[in-house]
Task: structure prediction
Amino acid sequence: MAKAGGIRIGIGGWTYEPWRGSFYPEGLPQKRELAHASGLLTSIEVNGTYYGAQKPESFAKWYDEAPEGFVFSLKAPRYATNRKVLAEAGSSIERFFTGGLMALKDKLGPINWQFMPTKTFNAEDFEAFLKLLPHKVEGRSIRHAVEVRHESFRHPEFLAMAKEYGVAVIMAGDSDYPQIADPTAPFIYARIMGTAEHHVQGYSSAALDLWAARAQEWAKGGVPAGLSYVDTGSAPRSPRDVYLYVISGHKTRNPAAAMALIERLD
Result:
């Protein structure tokens, strides 16, 4: 067994006008932005898949443009998660996985199933939803992560359920959303949201050092101090892959923060 899992650091999406001239060089054609971003980062979380279906050709194009070892985490469609009865999401989930995303092949990272902040924990319905998530598609293993944003999910029953189904609970860092840092899967999915304009790299050097150290500890199977847990006692101590995204905050600074973290981890 490896002594530590792999760590991938990225941002949300790659198309953002204020990044042109800061993250992207002046004059870089827009069609080259993904190639540029994927050459400097190790992952990107795609937000567009949350709002609507992408063309199969798009996934194939992303695969071709990103370098070997790069991964895309995809936000699952809102039609699957923004519903009163989650147990009825089966058709939306099936359409998502048959819509061409498997063209990403080995560059397909975890799927982020994001829920509205008003969605509360209903144990029976949420378990019914987890049962709908496929473990394999076209012979390829699929990693699932749930981004729950209501305080009612800070419950041992929810954590036990996530562990049973091997689903990661997304850790919200520097955020107003409830933080659940408990490891529940063979990988960690973290979204940190505290970048600020007055820091050239989005965060202070001390904060970047701290998040880099936490990523390393997660990769080794640890549970970093200073985070909010529901039940750390049952967390397995084994190496985990880590996916950490610098999201929200002062978005213009997010690429700089992600690159600063990658530099520390290198």
